[in-house]
Specification:
Blueprint lengths: L1 E3 L3 E4 L6 E2 L1 H4 L8 H15 L1 H8 L6 H14 L8 E3 L2 E5 L5 H16 L10 H7 L9 H16 L1 H9 L5 H17 L10 H17 L2 H8 L1
Parallel strand pairs: 3-4
Antiparallel strand pairs: 1-2, 2-5, 4-5
Helix pairs in contact: 2-5, 3-5, 5-10, 6-11, 7-8, 7-9, 7-10, 8-9, 8-10
Length: 227
């Protein structure tokens, strides 16, 4: 068994699986993982925008998030064309919970195209109110929350450049410029509990969901959703 970008898992069975050629124009290999993940995330956003909004309003790892994903797993699997696909001769299984960051990125890029960027805002992290509203003793994904705190810090310290990075096409001069201007805030925002390799794609994903919440003024909504 091997991991594909932390998103999908593969086994040796190939029984009912399909080839991925319809998505990338040829038989998929393991190196195609990031492209495939991005395509699946964009598909989920296009097919289920209401589900995505509800998902991003729930704390990572919470009971509410797990229940939502469980109820939508079959619908989400349509974005794979099948619950199982083949890559490098191995069957790929779907792990929807690990798609949260790529889905958030696809969603906020669509938001920026349709709703505009909005002004810079110094707001508290969306999850603070949601955590305070949680039932006592309920567990959440503390690692994901730490990463979101990191992304929120970047976004609020360098709002224009965070939006610029999200809107820029990968590999473009606009992307390179935004990254160069964001670099000074990365160190001050990074805490000891965040373990990440800070590549450009990772930084884009890390700031995506916090930017969505700042744009949508989501803290009160998120807190209510946890009740």
């Amino acid at each position: 068994m091997f991991a594909l970008g932390g998103m999908l898992l593969a086994t040796s069975s190939v029984g009912v699986a399909q080839r991925l050629g319809t998505r990338i124009g040829r038989e998929a290999e393991q190196k195609d993982g990031p492209v495939l993940i991005n395509q699946i995330a964009e598909c989920v956003v296009d097919r289920q925008p209401g589900f995505v909004r509800r998902w991003l309003g729930l704390l990572p790892g919470s009971v509410a998030e797990r229940a939502l994903i469980k109820g939508m797993t079959e619908d989400m699997s349509t974005c794979l064309d099948s619950p199982a696909l083949v890559m490098d001769g191995k069957q790929i299984g779907f792990k929807p919970a690990t798609l949260r960051r790529p889905v958030a990125l696809a969603y906020v890029r669509k938001e920026l195209r349709t709703a505009g960027q909005g002004p810079a805002r110094d707001v508290a992290p969306w999850f603070a109110a949601a955590i305070a509203a949680q039932p006592a003793g309920e567990k959440i994904d503390a690692t994901s929350i730490a990463v979101q705190d990191f992304g929120h810090c970047i976004a609020t310290r360098a709002w224009g450049d965070a939006l610029g990075l999200l809107a820029a096409e990968p590999g473009s001069p606009a992307e390179r410029g935004a990254i160069a201007r964001l670099k000074p805030v990365l160190g001050p925002c990074l805490t000891a509990d965040v373990k990440l390799t800070l590549t450009v794609p990772t930084i884009r994903e890390v700031i995506a969901e916090p930017v969505h919440h700042i744009l949508s003024d989501a803290p009160a909504t998120a807190a209510a959703a946890q009740r």
